[in-house]
Amino acid sequence: DLPYLRMFILLLLSSLLLAIHAGHQSVGVRGTLMCGHQPLVNAEVKLWELDTWPDPDDVLASVKTDQRGRFEIFGTESEVTKISTAVKFYHRCNNKGLFNLPGLCKRKITYEVPKSYINSGKQVGKWFEMGVMNMEAKVKGEDTECI
């Protein structure tokens, strides 16, 4: 039983050292959303930290686009390994909706943030600039989120 006890103690100490070593990482995304030629006002933008099962994904931040369709969102997370993040847009541009009732559902489009935009610390080092995006077109893999 002594080798098992040694292995258990070694695993426990390794886990503690990794937990102590976990550091803050930050990411920031900004851009402008359009619906055709009009700014996409009040669209919801969420920044997610993507985890693997059994740890659920975490919402790092949530904002709404302004009167010009602009958004700026950033968040931090403390992890041992490099975090994976995605920005998700929830909107009603060109949305026929459920049973042709556009107010019931929102289109949800997800973009993964390249790992090169994730930096150490609590401040954003390099912003992921998404530019001006026209949300009118359907995107492969987009989803619908209903009330």
UniProtKB/TrEMBL annotation:
Belongs to the nematode transthyretin-like family. Residues 1-22 form the signal peptide. It comes from Pristionchus mayeri. Keywords: Secreted, Signal. Coiled coil: none annotated. This is Transthyretin-like family protein. PANTHER family: TRANSTHYRETIN-LIKE FAMILY PROTEIN-RELATED, TRANSTHYRETIN-LIKE PROTEIN 5. It is found in: Secreted. It comes from the Eukaryota. Pfam families: TTR-52. Its main location: secreted. GO terms for cellular component: cell surface; extracellular region.
